[in-house]
Structure formats: C-alpha cells, structure tokens
Amino acid sequence: MSDFINGQAGTLIAALVFGYLLGSIPFGLILTRMAGLGDVRSIGSGNIGATNVLRTGNKKLAAATLVLDMLKGTAAVLIAATFSPQAAIIAGLGAFLGHIFPVWLKFKGGKGVATYLGVLLGLVWQVALIFAAIWIIIAYATRYSSLAALVAAVTTPIALYLLGYHQVALLFLVLTIVVFIKHRTNIERLLAGNEGKIGSKG
C-alpha cells in the first residue's frame, strides 16, 4: 500500500513539474522578439500575453500567442491524463502557475487567461466553449478584454459544479481567484473608467 501511495504521489509531483515547465514557456515574448518587435514587456501593460502583444499592431502574432498559450495548458492536461485524471488536474494547475510565474522570467509572467482556457479545454471542453462564448459576447459588447475574462472566469467553476465535475470545479475556483488577483489593477481601472480597450496602444 505504501508503495502505491508513494507511486501516486510521485506521479502527481511529476505532473505538477511537467505542467509548470510547459506553462512557463513565454510564447508572447519569444514571438515578438523573433518578429523583431523587441521586448513586449516594454509596451502597454508590460504583460507577455496576447492582449498586450496585440498592442504591437501585429494581429497575427497576437493570435499565435493566444493559441500557443492556450495549447500549452491543453497539452499539459492531455499528456498527464494518460497517467490518471488526478494527474491531469495537477498538470493543469502547474501549467497555469507556470504561465503566471515562469522561472525563465524571474517569476513575472502573464495573467493566465489563455492558459486557464487551455487547461479547461483539456479537462472539460464543453465548459471551455461556454467560457469562450461568454468572453466573445462581453468583449464584443464592451471592448474590454479584462472584463470579458473576469466574467467568463466567474461562470466557469459554477458551470463545472452544476455539471457534476466537482474536482475540476474546485481547481477552477482556485484558478479564478488567482485570475482576479492578477487583474486587480485592471479592476481598478475598470471602476475608474480608464481601462484600455481591445486594440488600443495604451
């Protein structure tokens, strides 16, 4: 029994580390540098995510950043799922934390929304579609990426719980809290009425 428990613990630790390392790849920074646009952290919000990459004016790079930041979360989950459902959940947590706190950038990464969605896509794709639909509707109506992300994130653990995915709902409750913490300055700007809109240079 102890060997089994130790084996399970080892698998979960490995899944966490694997997810973290995969999630910590800073695609936004890599792509903008490869395109000769310099350090994306020096413009706009200073973030390495797709919304800030869009402020370079290069929509293709922003789209590529979004997709790659999503897929690193999805890949972490799907690969770890070959070992166990619990490993998949832990790997998803690792990927999310890796994106926000990448070791390569002195633990200063993105805000986690794209990777959040990618992890969700790997675990419960139906709820990922709900997240995406809510994000698109709010973003289209308001032009605020941050507001769209926050509203979609609030609905995610609720939807997961109602659909019976209780372990995943607990994970996303934690992830949603972290997303809100990372967006605290955005929330302040939203309340003050001076949050930057999608596609703006500021």
Which runs of at least 5 residues are low in confidence (pLDDT < 50)? 1-5
Taken as a percent bin, the fraction of beta residues is under 5%
Number of helices: 10
N/C terminus separation:
58 Å
Query: Percent of residues in helical segments?
Result: over 70%
Backbone shape: globular
Walk me through what this model shows.
There is one protein chain. The protein is mainly alpha-helical. It has one domain. It is built from 10 helices and no strands. It has helices spanning 2-23, 27-34, 50-54, 59-80, 85-100, 113-123, 125-142, 145-162, 166-182, 184-192. Helix 4 packs across helix 6 and helix 8 (145-162) runs antiparallel to helix 9 (166-182). The longest helix is centred in the first third of the chain and has 22 residues, at 2-23. The protein is globular and about 45 Å long. The termini are far apart.
Notable characteristics:
202 residues
Short description:
By secondary structure, the protein is mostly helical. The chain is built from ten helices and no strands.
Task: Map the helices and strands.
Blueprint (H helix, E strand, L loop, with lengths): L1 H22 L3 H8 L15 H5 L4 H22 L4 H16 L12 H11 L1 H18 L2 H18 L3 H17 L1 H9 L10
